[in-house]
């Protein structure tokens, strides 16, 4: 049906390349997510310095990082931080849907 073995091997090789290219695209979009770091200037639980350490370490492994330091005291998300997080989360969900 396929004639010589060479034609079958070329087809297998082509299918294998397509598989590995698709796998690479999938891993790029899913295994390397974007990360949003938000911290308060005077956070009493996790200091702002921890945000900068995390940002630097995550950048070393080539992750996409968006970060913000918000004014204020205390640990938690103020309304402005929630407004920042909304589009970030929506974008991340769209990315996951595209990867499927």
What's a quick, concise take on this entry?
The chain has about 100 residues and is of the alpha+beta class. It is built from three helices and two strands.
Identify the notable features of this structure and list them briefly.
single chain, 3 helices, 100 residues
Topology:
Layout: H1 5-30, E1 35-42, H2 48-60, E2 65-73, H3 79-99
Describe the structure.
The chain has 100 residues and is α+β, with helices and mostly antiparallel strands. The protein has two domains: 1-31; 33-99, no CATH class. It contains three helices and two strands, in the order H-E-H-E-H. It has helices spanning 5-30, 48-60, 79-99, and strands at residues 35-42, 65-73. A two-stranded parallel ribbon has the order 1-2. The longest helix is centred in the first third of the chain and has 26 residues, at 5-30. It is elongated, with a radius of gyration of 22 Å. The relative contact order is 0.16. The model has no long low-confidence stretch (mean pLDDT 78).
